[in-house]
Amino acid sequence: MKTRPPAVAGMFYPGDARTLSATVDHLLAGVGAGFDTPPKALIVPHAGYVYSGSTAATAYAGLAPWADAIRRVVLLGPTHRVAVDGLALPGAAAFATPLGDIALDAAGIAAIADLPQVVVSDRVHAQEHSLEVHLPFLQRVLGDFTLVPLAVGHAGPEAVAEVLDRLWGGPETLIVVSSDLSHFLPYAAAQQVDRNTCRHILQRDTHIRPEQACGAYPINGLLLAATRRGLQPTLLHLCNSGDTAGDRDRVVGYAAFSFAEAAHA
Questions:
Q1: Pairing state of beta strands 87-89 and 118-120?
Q2: Which end of the chain, N or C, is surrounded by fewer C-beta atoms within 10 Å?
Q3: What sign for the dihedral angle of Cα 204, 206, 210, 214?
Q4: CA distance 27 to 49
């Protein structure tokens, strides 16, 4: 079985299994209780854990009450190293982290393989961190699950939403979109830009631009699918690297969102 090895273990997150487990568990323990309703989708940042781990934890800790039902994760993130048109699957059968291997979901991959916007490229995935950094959180919260990893290059909202529709499933399927917000603005400017971006995401505006969020393409597709299916987004946390582990001259913004069916009175 061909397995994609971790590319950023020891850089973005601890490379030692025991330290990694303790780090993730500490981050998860530092945030509030679980979600009141089961989330169908999350938007979660993907920087190093010292920068965005606390924001990511607000999304992943909320899964705890619903973790037993989630058996498959559809994970979409932007490409930072290798450009691609459309959405790229890997050729691998599993992804590895220091916490163990995660089997890819063969049925889910087969369900989208015929779509023209879906390609297969190990090169796109080999050094990409935007998906990898989420896996230890998912492993600690969910335990056993299968994965559909999609590295998203230039793809319109309809193209991404079509893939999500094929993979939507029921309570067993969680969709996670990986994205940071603004990059390398001064602290106060970043706060203003990121608050505006969050407002547009909460309005399910499918015109988010890459300079607002590096995961704009998968975000826009999720927002289109969420609108069609009546999912309501909730902002869980917003900060930037100046609030966590960086200086305030050039910061990166981080936000976490959950998407769930609207509660009926």
A1: parallel
A2: C
A3: positive
A4: 9
Around 21, how many Cα atoms within 13 Å sit in the side-chain half-sphere? 7
Provide the pLDDT confidence category of residue 59 given band limits of 50, 70 and 90: very high
End-to-end CA distance of the chain: 49
Q: Which pLDDT score is estimated for 265?
A: 43
Q: Are 93 and 1 in contact (CB under 8 A)?
A: yes
Written as six digits, the tokens of 45 are 């940042």
Per the structure block, which two tokens stand in for 245? 């582990």
Find out whether 260 and 234 touch, Cβ atoms under 8 Å: yes
Residue 243 CA, chain-centre distance (Å), reads 21
Residue with tokens 């309809």: 158
CA R_g for the chain: 17
> Using one digit for the tens of pLDDT, what is the confidence trace for 13-48?
999 999 999 999 999 999 877 788 999 999 999 999
The tokens describing 256, both together, are 């976490």
- For residue 84, the Cα-to-chain-centroid distance in whole angstroms is 18
Judge contact between 27 and 49, C-beta under 8 A: yes
Mean pLDDT of all residues in the chain? 96
d(CA 4, CA 26) in angstroms, rounded, equals 27
Report, as an integer, the average pLDDT of 77-87: 96
Q: What share of the chain is helix, strand, coil (3-state, %, to 5)?
A: 40, 25, 35
pTM: 0.97
